Amino acid sequence: MGLIHKQFLSGNRIYGCSGCKTHLATKDGVMSTAFQGQHGRAYLFQTVVNVIEGPPQDRPMTTGLHTVRDIKCCECYQVIGWRYVKAYNEDQRYKEGRYILEKELLIVVS
Questions:
Q1: CB of 86 closer than 8 Å to CB of 98
Q2: Is Plastid one of the keywords UniProt gives this record (predicted)?
Q3: HEC string of the chain?
């Protein structure tokens, strides 16, 4: 598998994995805080780092059918959210390539 080189982020507010504090995203990458995850509130991010993606799955959600990949922390392997691969409804296409991180599974690192 090889070595994993983690990225370290800088900025006002850095979100990290609640299990191991690995940097995941910054406040500047938040697109919306009005999402719902499996554990409650969730944030939509433009980009995240230090994650491993699982296989694609079709998943019915409140906004319709989406193809998603679960994402987990590259350090402790905790599932922290998912990445939208495909949205089948035209009005949901803005989510494609974006990431959901669940608030319950995040901590503010700095």
A1: no
A2: no
A3: CCCCCCCCCCCCCEEEECCCCCEEEEHHHEEEEEEEECCEEEEEECCCCCEEEEEEEEEEECCEEEEEEEEEECCCCCEEEEEEEEECCHHHHHHCCCEEEEHHHEEECC
What is the side-by-side strand order in the sheet with 14-17? 23-26, 14-17, 106-108
Across the chain, which has 110 residues, the per-10-residue mean pLDDT values are 80 95 97 94 97 97 96 97 97 98 95
What kind of architecture, by CATH, is found in domain 14-108? Beta Complex (2.170)
What is the sign of the dihedral through the CA atoms of 103, 104, 109 and 110? positive
**CB neighbours (10 Å) of residue 81?**
27
Q: What is the pLDDT of residue 11?
A: 87
Flag whether the pTM goes above 0.85: yes
Give domain limits for the chain: 14-108
